[in-house]
Design a protein that fits this description.
Helix content is 31%, strand content 14%. With 59 residues, the protein is an alpha+beta fold.
């Protein structure tokens, strides 16, 4: 992460996981996508994310 991005860069994690967490710690903007709504909600709970900012779209 440190080699390929800088503070303020946008980071995309297509399978919500550790990449988003590391990006948050390194002050990157994040976008997380996952087709499993449960995985997305669990990730938000783990990092105490503001759930109102999360948009869950059922396909």
């Amino acid at each position: 992460m440190l080699c390929y991005s800088q503070e303020g860069d946008m980071v995309l994690d297509q399978f919500v996981g550790e990449t988003l967490f590391e990006s948050m710690l390194l002050n990157r903007n994040i976008v997380g996508v996952d087709d499993n709504d449960e995985a997305l909600l669990r990730w938000c709970e783990k990092v105490s994310f503001n759930m109102s900012l999360i948009k869950v779209r059922n396909l």
